[in-house]
Predict the 3D structure of the following.
Amino acid sequence: MAEKQLLLEVVTPDRLVVSTPADVVVCPGVEGQFGVLVGHVPFLSALQIGEMYYKQGGKTEFLAVSGGFAEVTGEKVTVVAEAAEFGREIDLERAKRARERAEQRLAAARTENIDWARAEAALRRAVMRMKVAGR
Ligand code: ATP
């Protein structure tokens, strides 16, 4: 008989990104990365812009996650994110362009009034997508 597994669901406003059994799920919590195995105590965590991954049958799948929340129960991890992409779905050139735009905006902050937090978050999304791309 198969070992008990978690059910992982990652959803965004646009789509159900994945719904899959998983042996372990690792998420970028705002207070640090956390891992979940079946039987974990229930909790809720805000997520930061970062990489998440899950393992299933010896395979590891990586996703880029742009904020949101994770709800954990003993049987299920539900990630509700503003955006989430598998590494293979990421357009690397697009992420590079987004990084350039964000860097230019932040550099312009010396002379212009810019929305610093917004530009900084765009930069973090772009750099994180570049890291996860192709994984
Ligand atoms: P951009 O300026 O390139 O649009 P962004 O960080 O502003 O980047 P988001 O608002 O985070 O983009 O995402 C908008 C949508 O586009 C989401 O559905 C997200 O999954 C997708 N997306 C963003 N960047 C990429 C990328 N480099 N490759 C694939 N999909 C992406």
Strands lie at 6-11, 16-22, 24-29, 32-36, 43-47, 50-56, 59-65, 68-72, 76-80, 84-86. The first helix runs from residue 92 to 108.
